[in-house]
Amino acid sequence: MTMKRILLCFLTFQFFGCAELQQVVNQLPQGSVGIGNEEIARGLREALNFGIEKQVSKLTAKDGFFRNQLVKILLPDELKKVDKTLRDVGLGKLADEGLRILNRAAEDAVKEATPIFVDAVKGISFADAKQILLGSDSAATSYLEQNTRKKLYNRFNPVIKNSFKKVGADQIWSNIITKYNNLPLTNDVNPDLTDYTTKEALDGVFTMIALEEKEIRTKLSSRTTDLLRKIFALQD
Q1: How many degrees, rounded to 5, is the angle at CA 141 between CA 135 and CA 143?
Q2: Are 26 and 52 found together in one domain?
Q3: pTM for the whole thing?
Q4: Are residues 55 and 18 in the same domain?
Q5: How far is CA 212 from CA 49, 58, 137, 144, in A?
Q6: Range of the structural domain that residue 146 is part of
Q7: How far out from the chain centre does Cα 228 lie?
Q8: d(CA 94, CA 92)
Q9: pLDDT digits (tens, 9 = 90+) for 163-205
Q10: Which site among 25, 87, 152, 212 is 20 to 30 Å from 141 CA-CA?
Q11: Is the Cβ–Cβ distance between 14 and 45 less than 8 Å?
């Protein structure tokens, strides 16, 4: 099949639905433009592994969350009033420290992510690969999230809990909340910060992987191997 015919097939997406497009994809011969089924799947695995290694490692570094405005963990809504009130009464340093340790705990937890991601990437089939390749700029990230989020939560949660203990976060936040609850004219709060930080850490991980995936899909300079250039040329 010539490149012109392949391009024509893909242009039919402008006039037909996803089901029709999938039929076109299924009819592409095994050797289309020199790329076989397994090579497509291998290329997507390589892209995901590259994104995981690059972006997850950034998050595990000191201030990987705290200094990254895309994923920095802020206070839950019910604690924003706590933060403002503490600053208003001269306890800004205590409020700053409380925010910092939430992000430190997330950095500790993300170190547990890579093995789970690696297992999920290994499981990508050719059927998965075709859907991912023809999907949105975050299709591969969405696949990872669907297949790993529950496992990651179960792995992250105890790490964050232990991290809070290690840096004294449980005492710091107990002190913060106690001081706030003792102030006049305030309603008592008692949030589950371990659960909140776990979910925010997960969101941060997938945000950064999605960023890397979009770079690979949209920028030729981000396709750093021959295989990546070959595979993602199909979706250009």
Answers
A1: 75
A2: no
A3: 0.73
A4: no
A5: 11, 12, 10, 13
A6: 45-235
A7: 20
A8: 5
A9: 888 777 777 777 777 777 777 766 666 667 888 899 999 999 9
A10: 25
A11: no
